[in-house]
Amino acid sequence: MTNLSLLRAAMPCAVSLCALSSTALAAPSYTLVGQYTVASGIAGVDVLPDGRLVGVRADGALVAQTAANSSSWAQIGAIDSSLLNSFGPSFLAVTPDGSRLAIGDGNFGAGASVLLIEVNTLDPMSISAASSVALANYAGRWSDNDTLFVSGADGFSGGIVSELRASTLSTRTVVDSLDGASGGVITDGTWLFTGNGFAFDSAPGNSQTGEVRAFLLSDLANAAAPFSYEASGVAVADALSAASLAIDSRGNLLIGGAEFGGGESGFFAVIGADLLSDALAGAGIVPDALELRFDPSGGSAFSYSVLFNSITGEAIAISGGVAYRFAIPTPGAGLPLLASGLFVVSRRRRERSAA
User: What is the rounded CA–CA span in Å between residue 189 and residue 56?
Assistant: First the structure.
């Protein structure tokens, strides 16, 4: 049987197969290669430069794996728990060189702050000092060792994305007017991607829950005013609640989260790099039928958070205290896997408005 025949047998599409673009054939098929336990009570997990995961608890303890892909975790430091919301932090992000941590305090409104901690000050027996920067926070990712992008709520009026410079502690809003709650944020070095975590209304043209839009970093860098999410963002994908986003080594976009009230849940989505490139060029949101959807828990998970471990070269999906590890195929290696049973498609998809 040819690769194209395998694709036809494995991918249920709402459109005619002859209408599929050639980029559909390049969609990646991840392979589940293992799993490990995540330390209890931690939030905002990210990857250290040696491939270990690190997270922070509501009591301020910073805990990390004792080795990459290990289920053993140990405390490596702490921050003052009074700096955090009682329910815990919103995110933790590690700079590419591993020298600094950023932690969203999980607070809302005027009291919200992002905390910056130097990794060389961490000691499991003491509390490290943190620089506090007033900033709305839901998710955060570094684009380099000095620049942090943070999504958050602009009061009750909608979502924004802010830029924080660690060297000067200066901040500015780069994206505003998101008609919904904040979602995940990630950058591939050229584009900034951020999601609508919960749409406030369904007015024609406005983004929906789970919609991911992109902005050129070069445009943001030179802008005198924020870009409007609704008016200026390039719509590329729509999956789940886009609560967490990641980009793997092949440029594929991972989307996590879940919708409440009978919407999409129980899987994480992957948008192939070629499809994403088409969408960024103006082709529109990648169709549902061309998303890959995976549920490694076998139906027990409601939502997954996603990240990419560049040291191990694996995509990580976390749910229910378990981290599931996925190998990422080289180009051309994905098609035979589509018929292997590792490709999971959920039919729990709401109808998009025709407006």
Answer: 26
